[in-house]
Automatic annotation (TrEMBL):
<feature type="signal peptide">
    <location>
        <begin position="1"/>
        <end position="22"/>
    </location>
</feature>
<protein>
    <recommendedName>
        <fullName>Secreted protein</fullName>
    </recommendedName>
</protein>
<keyword id="KW-0732">Signal</keyword>
């Protein structure tokens, strides 16, 4: 489960986009309308999965799937205000990783700075 937590955390870092404009974070309702059930893909710039193309799918039932870079793993996600929080299924709540998302000109970014698009994404 620790590996799952690291993968989910790395995937969170991987799926963040940085915008030169001060964009507003998406509300959780916007996140659910636009990004639940679709692959959100990006390449982390740091962490254990640095440089690996990954896609994360947040499913309506509260599960999350991370695939790419030679891995396929599942966890859980939940909303905390306008934050999206992920963790391994067996991990305690304090192990969850929370980020916000915002729209950018090229797709989306999360508060960790990872750029992402609804995948698969063109390079």
């Amino acid at each position: 489960m620790r590996m799952l937590a690291r993968i989910l955390c790395g995937a969170t870092l991987a799926l963040t986009v940085v915008s030169p404009l001060a964009a507003q974070p998406m509300t959780i309702d916007q996140f659910k309308d636009e990004l639940v059930g679709v692959p959100l893909c990006g390449t982390p710039g740091t962490g254990a999965l640095e440089g690996k193309a990954l896609c994360v799918v947040h499913l309506p039932d509260g599960t999350v799937i991370v695939a790419g870079g030679g891995i396929l793993t599942r966890g859980v996600w939940e909303a905390d205000g306008d934050k999206v929080c992920r963790r391994g299924k067996e991990d305690p709540l304090e192990r969850r990783r929370c980020v916000t998302y915002e729209k950018t000109a090229n797709g989306y970014k999360n508060s960790d700075g990872v750029e992402a698009c609804i995948g698969p994404c063109a390079k």
